[in-house]
Write a structure and sequence with these properties.
By secondary structure, the protein is an alpha/beta fold. It has 8 helices and 12 strands. Bound molecules: 1-O-pyrophosphono-5-O-phosphono-alpha-D-ribofuranose. The site of 1-O-pyrophosphono-5-O-phosphono-alpha-D-ribofuranose has 13 residues, from strand 11 and helix 8.
């Protein structure tokens, strides 16, 4: 089981806001400093904003954001930067954001030099190998093609199994690939399973 959109990477935090600072050893004892948080926009954005609200921060501007991408949290030395998941990693790795809130799937696929500091306990999902309902991925000896938004995770998984597969990188709605006969299967995250079900696909095996 992995968790999506729930990992925090931090360098500093103000001393009063409780939960985060107390749980992150390097934050203990640090006086109030400016902090910039990169937050993954989209699916987990609401849960992340709710979490920060519960920590005592005024996130109302985020709720009415329109197309704006950077927000100052009122009465705090905190900026929120909204970015795509992979870019959250990039901004933290390059040091222009202090903390990232992003899924473990993105960390597994993209991260090179970040450390995971805290599991935020939302966005639970798993990586799975999936394909057309009733299909048997391991039948036959032919060359297998896997479509995925996660080529690194996919390659690593099949290399560990000793299988040489071709991985086709897809940017979104990867479920289309087996439906259009582009691939024999997909490697993707599954949360509720609704997307697979509604498109006639099923999980063949869980990966992580
Ligand atoms: C993710 C994932 C699946 C879907 C799984 O896509 O790639 O398509 O969510 O969720 P479910 O099991 O709850 O149906 P996302 O919503 O991030 O959109 P994308 O495919 O356009 O990247």
């Amino acid at each position: 089981m992995i968790k999506r959109s729930q990992k925090a990477v931090a360098r500093a935090h103000s001393e009063e806001k409780g939960d985060f600072a107390e749980q992150i050893p390097i934050c203990k004892g640090i006086e109030k400093v400016m902090i910039r948080i990169a937050l993954t926009k989209g699916r987990i954005e609401k849960q992340a904003a709710e979490l920060l609200s519960r920590c005592g921060y005024d996130m109302s501007e985020l709720a009415e954001k329109g197309r704006k991408l950077i927000f100052h949290v009122p009465e705090e030395d905190i900026e929120i930067v909204l970015a795509k998941a992979a870019d959250v990693i990039t901004y933290v790795e390059h040091g222009v954001c202090d903390v990232g809130m992003v899924g473990a799937d993105t960390i597994m696929e993209h991260a090179k030099s970040v450390c995971e500091l805290l599991d935020l306990n939302f966005g639970r999902c798993k990586f799975a190998l999936a394909g057309l309902r009733g299909g048997n991925f391991y039948d036959g000896y032919g060359h297998k093609v896997i479509a995925s938004k996660y080529p690194h995770v996919t390659k690593t998984y099949f290399t560990e199994k000793g299988m040489d597969v071709e991985v086709v990188k897809i940017e979104g709605s990867v479920e289309l690939a087996p439906l259009l006969s582009l691939s024999d299967a997909i490697v993707d995250i599954v949360e509720t399973g609704a997307t697979l079900r509604e498109n006639g696909l099923e999980v063949y095996e869980e990966i992580a």
